[in-house]
Amino acid sequence: MKFPEHFLIGGSVSANQIEGGCREGGRGLSVWDVFQFDEKVKNGCFELPYETIVKAAQDRNDALYPKRRGIDFYHNYKKDIQLFAQMGFRVFRMSIAWSRIFPTGEEEVPNPEGLQFYRDVFHTLRANGIEPLVTMSHFDLPLALSLKYNGWEDRKLVDLFERYGKCILDAFHEEVKYWITFNEIDATVHIPYVGAGMIKEKTSDEKQACWQALHHQFVASAKVIQYAHAHYPDIKIGCMSTKNLKYAKTCKPEDNMQCLLETLEDTSYTDVQAFGSYPPALLNKWKREGISVHFAKDDQETLKQGTVDFISFSYYASLVTSAGREEKDLSNSNLLVGEKNPYLKQTQWGWQIDPIGLRYSLNQMYDRYRKPVFVAENGLGYNDTVEDGKIHDDYRIEYVRDHLRQVMLAINEDGVDCFGYTYWGCIDMIAGSTSQMKKRYGFIYVDQDDHGNGTKERIKKDSFAWYKNVIETNGACLD
Hints:
- This protein has 479 residues and is α/β, with parallel strands linked by helices.
- Helices cover 41% and strands 14% of the residues.
- It has helices spanning 15-18, 50-58, 66-69, 73-87, 98-101, 112-127, 143-149, 156-172, 187-190, 192-196, 206-231, 253-275, 280-289, 299-305, 355-369, 394-412, 462-472, and strands spanning 8-12, 91-95, 131-137, 178-182, 236-242, 245-248, 310-314, 318-321, 330-333, 336-339, 373-377, 418-424, 444-446, 458-460.
- It has an 8-stranded parallel β-barrel with strand order 1-2-3-4-5-7-11-12, surrounded by 5 helices.
- Helix 4 runs parallel beside helix 6 and helix 8 runs parallel beside helix 11.
């Protein structure tokens, strides 16, 4: 078996984790730029007290804040893209930093230096035969909008995002064919500061505010999609959510009912963007929990007219769920915590490794939506070691091989229309939740430690040559 002839395979990153250059080119601070690295943080930090955020925003000592430095892709993008081209990348999923285009989010005119930077990046990708896939908003809301409006809780952000989305579509529609509006849009409910820029002390009813903020994001996404379809019919624009795959702990009906209910909530985030309406299960959940989401006059029609062209998701691990209230052995999986699966191994960070779960997820998502699907994130974080200038990461090769086999089976055996796969963190970068460097995902090692020390030299890991061969053979070498 092979992948389809035009299968888009490559790598995935986010602006807030790689770019750096936070004081250059007119960029403003984002919500991630106020987190310092903390050795004590093991499973991630997604919110900070209001006073800490304000103090950090005023702090000019950027060395203390890992997301402000990234891996300096801002100055090294040409060399990094050449390395991606050497691996044979057909696609590179990246994001645009909203605050590099509109530093506070409220400017009337976009920042020309920011536009030029991304234009140069896209031209470099095209010159190296790599298709850009661009996420408009990847957890980097301009910090000013968080402090002034409490982020997406305020309806004002719908108009601001619409202006931003139209701006970058107008600027880059010739260079970028594939777009995603929001990265892991369900994060707004799970981690509201990072997902929506909402600060706990400024939020009177967090659960209510989270769903209202998410509704605002759905509407903003639909408005931008409508604009894209009307003005640039050749581009494809999709959604992206976290695939929180759950298995029932036993064959007890109660456990399976619990699994179904959690799965329906998981798919509801995509339902709104694919079908243009809220699913009954979610509306009933709101009613039971006393949540009242305000809809503006035209919101329902906007959602109906602004549906996506394709479905994308992140997949790292699966979890187990049950209906009982007994003490449970828990495990992390990206944004959620669930029960451990005794049949699975886990990573150094406690995420369970389940390649078959990716095939399961692809079938589940394609069967539900009947739209092309794309694996936007999948990868293994590991504390790699350098031995005589080399990084032997057989564990990463095994992880990717096992997951890609399942993608291939989903396509060839099950008939899933999956048109691409981008490995997350194809070059080492600042970890999202922990702001570490030692949690490394990449095929390319970056000589930088948790505190920013190092030469920033790029070194090819063993997985670099292996992934290159996968792309060259279109997956035939996986057998």
